[in-house]
From TrEMBL:
Family: Belongs to the TRAFAC class TrmE-Era-EngA-EngB-Septin-like GTPase superfamily. TrmE GTPase family.
Binding site for (6S)-5-formyl-5,6,7,8-tetrahydrofolate: 22, 85, 125, 459
Signal peptide: none
Taxonomic source organism: Paenibacillus harenae
Cross-referenced CDD domains: trmE, TrmE_N
Entry superkingdom: Bacteria
Binding site for Mg(2+): 235, 256
Cofactor dependency: K(+)
Protein name as catalogued: tRNA modification GTPase MnmE
Function: Exhibits a very high intrinsic GTPase hydrolysis rate. Involved in the addition of a carboxymethylaminomethyl (cmnm) group at the wobble position (U34) of certain tRNAs, forming tRNA-cmnm(5)s(2)U34.
Residues holding GTP: 231-236, 250-256, 275-278
Amino acid sequence: MIHDTIAAISTAVGEGGIAIIRISGPDAISGTARIFQSKTSLNEAQSHTVNYGHIIDPTTGEQVEEVLVTVMRGPRSFTAEDVVEINAHGGVVAVKQVLDVVLQQEGFRTAEPGEFTKRAFLNGRIDLMQAEAVIDLIRSKSDRAFSVARKQAEGALSKQIKALRQTVIELLAHIEVNIDYPEHDVEDLTSAYIREQCGSAIEAIGKLLKTANEGKILREGILTAIVGRPNVGKSSLMNVLTQENKAIVTDIPGTTRDVIEQFVTLNGIPLRLLDTAGIRDTEDVVEKIGVERSRSALAEAELILLVLNYNEPLQPGDRELLEQLAGRSVIVILNKTDLPHQLEIEVVEQFVPADSIVRMSMLEERGLDRLEQAISDMFFEGQLESNDLTYVSNVRHISLLKRANQSLVDAIEASNMGIPIDVIQIDVRSAWESLGEILGDEVGDSLIDQIFSQFCLGK
Ligand code: GDP
Ligand code: ZN
């Protein structure tokens, strides 16, 4: 049983400027009522209502801040406890003052990072997977990653894992019956059944694991290097993508001195863009540092955008880059299509498939849709536009799914080899346990603490 009441400033996701104080615990309502001046006492407020009034400092009797207070009585709240949210409009300083007053109330203390979510989990309000999704929500860098995490927080993935677990428990029950009543002699039926149930669970796990990589991409962005000879339009591309003018654009070859990283989303596809200085031999020392960094950035990149000048015949430097990049995920951008066409596309097509060649004009900002399509085809097998956003993106979930998968494979093999059913049962049970761990059924205290300590304060 939880006795203390916790409070923290909780900045709502996606609303950077607005700070809310969230309070949860047995004294949340009565404690806040003592410092809240309004027409009627907060103690009488109905659940899920917003109440207007002022926070007063009980030691001085002074009004601290004009506020809106939301009351949510447990268990119909995020933590399943009584929850109060104080919405102060007066900016960070005012909110901090309000929090100070709140924390003076008896039984109140500052929440640890992730503690609200931890309470929701401990009170059975959400499962562990949903709780972890809240971490992802806070960290997600792109809109799409945000919707994936939100969908997960709502329990979409939990539902799939539960269904999977149901398949396994049915099998387990079947095996147990067989062990307990061997005289029924249903051995053959059972081994066919084992293969069938394990097989369908393995298939479902396989589908989930396939989404894992896409989930990671959505969360972290595709590490993307922009390369090309000087003056082909790399910085201009960067600028078109970022719509800011952070990278230097100039007519003088080699003026992008350093690697600049920027996070952008191209119609929902998150890219971590590295603007790499023109890769070429140079005597300029400052330039050389940039070139060194570009080289290592290039080695790490998951996607390479090679920019060529459509308005010039292919240069030896272009050909060198095309050769160097063989076997990598490359999209060739033919830039400056607003100018007359001089480049020999046939030669480029000897190095990269035609659908990885995109015609663009940075000057006229044309071809972005084609670039987006090419990236989408390369990384998402064209499935990105589907609304099925239940991705497995958490490393812990991935390794547990793999472990469950291995146990099921072992069970099938054992069954094929005619190994006694009580041995097979061990594998099936361990698959069941691995899946349970994903949902938080079998986790020890230390793991729970570890997971929740990753949160921001106020969540
Ligand atoms: P970088 O050295 O590869 O980074 O090239 P920049 O982005 O600095 O561009 C070099 C020059 O080409 C600048 O003068 C740009 O304005 C010009 N440029 C870039 N893209 C285009 C384009 O699509 N069309 C035309 N006509 N000029 C462009
Ligand atoms: Zn540049």
